[in-house]
């Protein structure tokens, strides 16, 4: 075969995509700017470097993250396999020996004569060459500018300062209630009310919580951004006059004189997805360490057992609005030759980046062979992620990692079946089997067609 594919970015998604296509016999030109130019976060010249933690999360396929890894392995992911071969003990999660992992990826890439690694900055998309763009959250400025010019300024986002997102099913509605401030419009917000004692306890946790450090190159982007922990330091009542103001919020279940303020402070949650499974905490942009965020959220009445599907983060993060730029095959709507993969597409996380790298490569292969492209349903975690980022109805698209709330509901007809689904383990067992059946079908289809 003399077909050539260009892959830009030898990170997690790019390395995964390269190995898939090399194994299919393509000539791959892998363009990577390191070590000549640095992203600021990468420290080595190795491919597939982990920029921060060395953990790929749970291995339990009854968790969304664990299932994503299993789906990837079933579809032929090399990076998940190499991660397993280079794992270090960490209970039921998958953590890697950083150096061993990157070296193994490099060695595997080097086995192929049909690979050319070009160390340079890639500045401009060439729609005449089949290309997978996988330049990640720290995409170099000139390429970022080119993406903006080609695909539209409004479809390009630069950094993340976002609030935690929780699963609605895990909210305690004995305490939380639906209402809009001053009853304006529909009662769309979920409100978690606090009395004085609860607020003081919450405040105490907040001002003593540790923040995750910002890197030098990030600090300058976040100068004007006010995370909740910084706001809290201005005074004990600042939040009660800001994002936690209680005025105009009434729990209709409690009899009270109308317009008399019922609460000392209120945390509001806003719907985050079309299916109303996910809610974000309004005004709670935070850079607290994740275990501190968990402690803080558990101190909010109604969120004691909240399942946090996404923690608040503040880090440099380039991502495109995939719903305006890509189809469900991760192919650009504007140019058939161009695919995107990894964190740049709006997924978040190591596993998600690897899995989308694999998916873009599968479709690139099929595109070049003039076969129909693969689409995955939201019964699978990978399909749910891709369908989420390419769904056109989002008001405010934010990066997403694997979680159950974006996955299709289990069909059940009888009351009896619905009751059984209350058992989370049973429900996740069904979700897992359903996903792996779907992946098996797709795998067979890819092999036969
Ligand atoms: C600071 C930080 C910390 C993170 N921590 C975690 C974490 O702990 N856990 C987690 O799950 N996720 C984390 N993430 C998110 C994400 O999972 C990782 O960034 C992941 O590496 C993304 O994979 P990727 O393949 O999309 O991009 P990358 O792995 O970053 O690969 C992109 C590659 O493209 C290269 N490149 C960029 N621009 C150009 C250009 N114009 N020309 C040529 N090459 C270029 C870069 O040098 C890089 O090698 C973090 C992200 C950041 C920014």
Structural class: alpha/beta
Whole-number radius of gyration? 23 Å
Question: Strand-residue fraction?
Answer: 15-25%
Number of DSSP helical runs: 14
Domain count: 2
- What small molecules accompany the polymer chains? flavin-adenine dinucleotide
Return the CATH class of the largest domain: Alpha Beta
Assign the CATH topology of the largest domain.
Answer: FAD/NAD(P)-binding domain
Principal-axes geometry comes out as globular
The count of DSSP E runs of length 2 or more, i.e. the number of strands, is 16
Give the averaged pLDDT, no decimals: 92
The N- and C-terminal alpha carbons lie at a distance of 18 Å
- Please give the largest β-sheet: 6 strands, antiparallel
- Identify the CATH homologous superfamily of the largest domain: FAD/NAD(P)-binding domain
* SSE pattern, N- to C-terminal: EHEEHHEEHEEHEEEEHHHEEHEEHEHHHH
What kind of oligomer do you see? single chain
What's the arrangement of secondary structure elements?
Elements: E1 4-8, H1 12-23, E2 27-32, E3 55-58, H2 64-74, H3 78-85, E4 87-88, E5 93-96, H4 98-110, E6 115-119, E7 131-133, H5 141-151, E8 156-162, E9 165-167, E10 177-179, E11 189-194, H6 196-208, H7 216-219, H8 228-232, E12 265-271, E13 278-281, H9 290-298, E14 308-310, E15 313-320, H10 322-325, E16 338-340, H11 350-368, H12 381-389, H13 415-420, H14 424-448
Helix pairs in contact: 1-11, 2-11, 2-14
């Amino acid at each position: 075969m003399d077909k050539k594919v260009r892959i830009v970015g030898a990170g997690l998604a790019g390395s995964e995509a390269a190995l898939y296509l090399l194994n299919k016999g393509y000539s791959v030109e892998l363009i990577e700017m390191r070590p000549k130019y640095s992203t600021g976060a990468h420290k080595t010249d190795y491919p597939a470097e982990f920029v921060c933690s060395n953990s790929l999360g749970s291995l339990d396929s009854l968790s969304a993250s664990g299932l994503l890894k299993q789906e990837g392995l079933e579809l032929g992911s090399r990076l998940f396999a190499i991660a397993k071969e280079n794992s270090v003990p960490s209970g039921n999660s998958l953590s890697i020996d950083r150096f061993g992992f990157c070296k193994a990826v490099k060695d595997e890439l080097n086995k192929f004569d049909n690979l050319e690694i070009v160390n340079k900055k890639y500045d401009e998309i060439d729609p005449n060459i089949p290309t997978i763009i996988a330049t990640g959250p720290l995409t170099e400025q000139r390429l970022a500018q080119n993406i903006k010019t080609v695909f539209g300024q409004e479809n390009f986002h630069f950094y993340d300062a976002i609030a935690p997102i929780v699963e609605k099913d895990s909210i305690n509605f004995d305490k939380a209630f639906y209402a809009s401030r001053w009853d304006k419009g529909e009662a769309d917000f979920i409100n978690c009310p606090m009395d004085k004692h609860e607020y003081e306890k919450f405040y105490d946790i907040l001002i003593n919580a540790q923040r995750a450090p910002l890197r030098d190159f990030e600090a300058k982007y976040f100068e004007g951004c006010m995370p909740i922990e910084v706001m809290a330091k201005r005074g004990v009542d600042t939040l009660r006059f800001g994002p936690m103001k209680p005025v105009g919020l009434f729990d209709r279940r409690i009899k009270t004189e109308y317009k008399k303020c019922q609460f000392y402070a209120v945390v509001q949650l806003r719907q985050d997805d079309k299916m109303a499974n996910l809610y974000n905490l309004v005004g709670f942009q935070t850079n607290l360490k994740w275990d501190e965020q968990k402690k803080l959220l558990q101190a909010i009445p109604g969120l004691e057992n909240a399942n946090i599907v996404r923690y608040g983060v503040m880090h440099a993060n380039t991502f495109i609005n995939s719903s305006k730029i890509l189809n469900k095959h991760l192919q650009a709507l504007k140019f058939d030759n161009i695919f995107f993969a990894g964190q740049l597409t709006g997924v978040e996380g190591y596993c998600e980046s690897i899995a989308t790298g694999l998916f873009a490569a599968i479709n690139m292969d099929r595109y070049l062979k003039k076969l129909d492209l693969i689409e995955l349903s939201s019964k699978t975690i990978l399909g749910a992620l891709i369908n989420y980022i390419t769904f056109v109805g989002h008001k405010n698209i934010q990066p997403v990692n694997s979680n159950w709330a974006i996955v299709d509901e289990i069909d059940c007809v009888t009351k009896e079946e619905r009751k059984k689904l209350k058992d989370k383990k049973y429900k996740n067992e069904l979700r897992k089997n359903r996903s792996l059946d779907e992946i098996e079908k797709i795998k067979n289809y890819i092999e036969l067609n």
